[in-house]
What does this fold into?
Amino acid sequence: QATTLDNLGVAYWSLRSYGPAIQSMQESLQLVRKMNDRRGMVFCLNNLGDLCRETGAYAQAQEYLSEGLALADEIGFPYAVGAFQHGLGRLFLEQGKPDQADRCFAQALAIGREKGNLALSGNGLCGKGLVHLRQEQFDQAADCLEQAIQAHAEAGEADYTILDRALLALCCLRQGDLA
It folds into this structure.
């Protein structure tokens, strides 16, 4: 039932029906907490954190993501630790905290590389590229984004590869390099 509620929340989220999405995901989190399903809690907290970030509820997002990060670390779930670091990086970047964002993206990248997870490595590299892009450090941004393209392509993550390429194009445009 908890998985169904979380999946229902994701479906509502994809339709941009944020109220029902949050409600379904919170109900799912309550159920997995009652069952003491710690891995289930990790997934629910990640979804709720990302959803709250997307809706601009930054304090709530940070609460969910920080709780999930601590729990994932406690239960020895390194990919989730990396995913939470990436989520927190996105949150901090949106809040105009590039130094905190960069530290989180660097942690996600380090975990991805340590565990041989190309998708997570690509996410960390893309995040670092965004930090550099926002700081108008175009050479560093391009380097990170080119590495993200390679990592995501090797991981078979076509959607992320497209995003990386679009960000690299934006970087080149902002830098005035239209060649």
Q: What stands out?
A: The two ends are 54 Å apart (CA to CA). Residues 74 and 80 are 11 Å apart (CA to CA).
